[in-house]
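in:
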């Protein structure tokens, strides 16, 4: 498993502490007169992710995506261009970092990858026009309807100091419940996303 022990990686963690099972890796950009080449994923890195779907996502300034939760699949995030914050909240009761949060700051000029396991609430905020690559271990056609949970990004119980106000949200995300209600819903037998 990739760990967050190098000082240059820990500098991207701006609040909270590393969460169990989260892999964070600096990427190496090889440049020459033609441009550059950067490996963005290798099986040999030993992450929790076995990708089933890759997506390229463009976001406008002041866009917030999340806070989402999936209980069946792992995720990968790498910012290609732009500037963003990534917030994670561990709600896995059996995790050594249960109820802890981490907030990362990434830029496209300093390429890194964040891979995290199922059971972590996650969201990303984009300061400027940005492009990221995202992978999941279960394709969207299979998880979209019954494993696509969420809570409101601004809930103080998330303990994520975003430092933002009034971001652009999807209609669905603007209606997400507080964290406490999400946890209650998840514990209710038969409740679906």
């Amino acid at each position: 498993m990739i760990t967050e022990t190098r000082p240059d990686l820990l500098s991207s963690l701006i609040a909270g502490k590393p969460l169990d099972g989260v892999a964070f890796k600096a990427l190496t950009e090889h440049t020459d007169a033609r441009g550059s080449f950067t490996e963005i994923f290798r099986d040999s890195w030993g992450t929790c992710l076995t990708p089933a779907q890759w997506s390229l996502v463009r976001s406008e300034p002041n866009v917030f995506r999340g806070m989402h939760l999936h209980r069946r699949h792992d995720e990968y995030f790498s910012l290609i261009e732009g500037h963003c914050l990534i917030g994670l909240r561990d709600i896995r009761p059996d995790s050594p970092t249960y109820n802890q949060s981490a907030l990362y700051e990434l830029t496209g000029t300093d390429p890194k990858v964040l891979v995290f396991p199922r059971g972590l609430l996650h969201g990303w905020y984009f300061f400027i026009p940005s492009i990221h690559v995202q992978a999941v271990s279960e394709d969207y056609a299979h998880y979209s309807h019954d494993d696509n949970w969420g809570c409101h990004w601004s809930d103080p119980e998330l303990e994520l100091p975003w430092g933002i106000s009034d971001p652009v949200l999807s209609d669905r995300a603007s209606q997400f419940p507080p964290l406490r209600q999400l946890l209650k819903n998840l514990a209710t037998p038969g409740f679906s996303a």
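note: The two ends are 31 Å apart (CA to CA).
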